[in-house]
Design a protein that fits this description.
20 strands
Length: 520
């Protein structure tokens, strides 16, 4: 065997190589692997570690986008709400949103018109329709200033955003994809009709070369950076980076509805029940420039969110109420819009090359709500170049743990509570929310909390951490506390250090130098 053929035999080849392990990249990997294509995904950090874990946690059509005449985007997103709810009922659930009428802002007739369109252009079947509320009698009026007497109530959905990413990655891996967190693509070049790709393990520095027929650049805010550094497109300037920041305060109201508040700058913010004990308030739209360091909320953004929420809540929201903040950078396609909140939230796909030379597909922008339809669009391009193999399938296939009907959630909690009667129901409910029917993999045969191993605080036990390390690529405490769960809000430094020590020891015992799947 000559050296050239020996090299070809030893170099793994993929139909599709994806750069970026956010919701778009993982959604594409899942769809492609399920259709029979060989897939490799490289993510420089943790799955969902960027924009995809810093959203407002909503599966929604985007009511305010109607004002910018983005009817097709709103329709596409609205049609996805119930599809996603059905395939992931453990991490997605319906939520009612209360929109108080502010006499000095949008008139009531305009709100009614917008909500009528919202109800009727998206194929709504299961979600309840819009209704009117008398805030003087409805519980939703309790936390608000008395000057707000009327409101409209409509439906959207909540999502555990970073878990949505991880579950797509998990399903992709179980269908044969090589999912590689903490692996960056250092260089890619065309050769003999396909791509030669040099990958680097960001922890060990080890490099490996693979080949691929198609590369998909789904790097989110880093999409232009990847074009420049990996492909040599030094003039890449396709996305507008807009920072969205949120504050989390102690629970502001007792009911399970969310609020949508209008401001006189034509923006809106949400106030949403969050992780049982908190209220989430956001988001902002701030220009982020080109700096790709970890985004952080500015002092001005905190003041803006506190002031805007205080326009509506009877008890003002102050800086002292804030227990946690987070920020993410949205890579909005640069369509020339003059203001950040006016830029399109839809995705744009641009092709570079073809099947004869090596195809590169670049994804600019997009919303978490439309990730699945984006994946189906990308698969059409893959099929054109590599041939069709299996039909579209993701609209009806449950994500891991989501193989039950939404209305069966409480019954599923009851089932696990009966099987583990000595465990606290609050813990069981959280685990079913996190893992659905796969909560059994965490609970095992445990009959009391000591059976779950070491306690780290706030109902996080060794059994859950071990599951996350073995099955969901958790490698650091941040992976566990802020992406696989949101328990980190309540953790202190000492508890986090204890978790770090445990994970270090567990990694050695598992012979894990990295928490990843090997290249296939």
């Amino acid at each position: 065997m000559n050296k050239q053929s020996q090299h070809a035999r030893l170099t793994p080849h993929y139909d599709v190589l994806i750069i970026g392990g956010g919701i778009n990249g993982c959604g594409i990997a899942r769809d492609a692997a399920g259709r029979g294509y060989s897939v490799c995904l490289c993510e420089a950090g943790d799955f969902g570690g960027g924009t995809s874990s810093a959203s407002t946690k909503l599966i929604h059509g985007g009511l305010r986008y109607l004002e910018h005449y983005e009817f097709m985007l709103v329709r596409k997103a609205l049609m996805e709400r119930e599809v996603l709810w059905k395939i992931a009922p453990h991490i997605i659930w319906q939520m009612r949103f209360v929109l108080p009428h502010h006499s000095g802002l949008r008139p009531a007739w305009l709100l009614r018109l917008g909500l009528f369109l919202y109800d009727h252009i998206g194929g709504r079947k299961l979600l309840p329709p819009t209704s009117s509320l008398n805030l003087q009698h409805d519980e939703a009026g309790g936390p608000l200033k008395k000057l707000f007497k009327k409101a409209f109530e409509y439906s959207d959905c909540w999502v555990e955003d970073s878990r949505l990413v991880v579950l797509n990655a998990l399903d992709a891996a179980e269908r044969g994809a090589s999912m590689l967190p903490r692996t960056k693509v250092a260089r890619a070049r065309r050769s003999s009709g396909n791509w030669q790709v040099e990958m680097e393990d960001t922890l060990t520095g080890h490099r490996q070369t693979v080949t691929a027929d198609i590369i998909i650049n789904a790097a989110g805010p880093w999409v232009d950076m990847v074009l420049k550094q990996v492909f040599g497109h030094n003039d890449a300037n396709n996305v507008r980076l807009v920072r969205g920041s949120h504050i989390v305060i102690r629970r502001k109201f007792d009911h399970d509805k969310a609020y949508i508040f209008q401001n006189d700058d034509n923006r809106i913010i949400f106030a949403i029940p969050y992780e049982v004990d908190y209220t989430l308030i956001g988001t902002t739209d701030a220009e982020h420039g080109r700096e790709m360091d970890k985004p952080e909320i500015s002092s001005g953004e905190i003041d803006y969110l506190c002031a805007m929420a205080s326009e509506y809540f009877a008890e003002p929201v102050t800086r002292s109420d804030v227990v946690w903040t987070y920020s993410g950078v949205r890579p909005l396609y640069d369509d020339g819009a003059s203001k950040a909140h006016e830029a399109t939230r839809d995705y744009v796909v641009r092709a570079d090359g073809d099947s004869a030379t090596g195809l590169l597909l670049n994804i600019f922008g997009g919303k978490i709500t439309t990730f699945r339809v984006l994946a189906e669009e990308i698969l059409k391009d893959i099929e054109k170049n590599l041939g069709a193999r299996q039909p579209p399938w993701t609209a009806h296939a449950a994500l891991p743990g989501g193989d039950f009907a939404a209305q069966e959630f409480d019954a599923l909690v009851d089932q696990y509570a009966e099987a583990h009667p000595r465990l606290d129901r609050k813990l069981i409910t959280r685990l079913v929310r996190q893992y659905g029917t796969r909560a059994s993999l965490v609970l095992g045969d445990a009959q009391k909390t000591t059976d779950l191993g070491k306690a780290f605080g706030h109902d996080l036990y060794e059994a859950e951490v071990t599951y996350l390390m073995q099955h969901e690529w958790a490698f650091t405490p941040q992976d566990v506390l802020f992406r696989r769960t949101k328990l980190g809000i309540a953790f202190d430094g000492k508890q986090t250090q204890a978790l770090q020590k445990f994970m270090d020891r567990a990694a050695k015992n598992m012979h894990m130098t990295t928490s990843k799947t090997a290249v296939r």
